[in-house]
């Protein structure tokens, strides 16, 4: 497991979050459309086009969730070799996407300590998977 693989996980996680938000926004737009609101600049088949887009986005979302789930299993198996504190730090950083400053505050340590421990962990798990 290397830093790039962990960053890849984090990026896919963020893509999924953004896809969900986009789908929610589009679905809310359809609901407003159904309540009788008219958008004069929209194409005639706004509802059909939007529904098709939502379906495509949901398919893409499902594919990304599958990839993320497989990556999560791989990452978690590498984290098993770590101490409890190290696992917490890595989950906060890569699984939850928190910054070093937030991690330092939550774990009651300095940001320099977070960086140092993170660097040591990356060396530890480098040989994993």
Descriptive overview:
The structure is a single chain. The chain is mostly helical. It is built from 5 helices and no strands. The N and C termini lie close together (6 Å). The model has no long low-confidence stretch (mean pLDDT 89).
Defining key terms:
129 residues, elongated, 5 helices
Number of strands: 0
- Run of helices and strands: HHHHH
The poorly predicted ranges are: none
Provide the helix percentage: over 70%
CA-CA gap between termini:
6 Å
Find the structural class using helix and strand composition: mainly alpha
Radius of gyration: 20 Å
Blueprint of the fold:
Layout (H helix, E strand, L loop, with lengths): L2 H32 L11 H34 L4 H12 L4 H7 L4 H15 L4
Helix pairs in contact: 1-2, 4-5
Summarize this structure briefly.
With 129 residues, the chain is an all-alpha fold.
